[in-house]
Amino acid sequence: MNQEIKLLTTFHCAKCKQVKKELLEAGIPYVECPADDKSGIELVVKYRVMTAPALFIPESEEDYRYITDFDEILNYIHSRS
After folding, report:
1. d(CA 63, CA 3)
2. Interacting residues of 64 by C-beta distance below 8 A, sequence separation 6+
3. Bridge partner list, 78
4. What's the rounded Cα separation, in Å, for the pair 54 and 69?
5. Tens digit of pLDDT for each residue in 21-75?
6. pTM score, two decimals?
7. What is the rounded end-to-end Cα distance, in angstroms, of the chain?
């Protein structure tokens, strides 16, 4: 599986900035998908996620599971580091 973790973000979101910092510190590679960009819009439409941050974790070559709860996102990151 070659997919990377994706992070749906918005520009002024403090929690998005914190999640990006935590991912960086944990050494977890990810692709940022701003909600107002094509990559973010595709995630919003496909998964009907209307909140940021949202962490998308590869489940298969074509599908992701996602976490939208801030504390659960941090727990996931800390469990991987």
Report:
1. 9
2. 3, 6, 47, 56, 57, 58
3. none
4. 8
5. 999 999 999 999 999 999 999 999 999 999 999 999 999 888 999 999 999 999 9
6. 0.92
7. 20
Sign of the C-alpha dihedral, residues 38, 57, 67, 55? negative
Residues 6+ apart with CB under 8 A from 72: none
Q: Which tokens in the block code for residue 27?
A: 């050494």
**Which amino acid is residue 25, in one-letter code?**
E
Distances (CA, A) of 75 to 11, 19, 54, 55: 23, 11, 13, 12
Dist CA 22 CA 77 (whole Å): 7
Angle at 43 between CA 20 and CA 15, to 5 degrees: 25
Report domain extents, the chain: 1-10+29-67
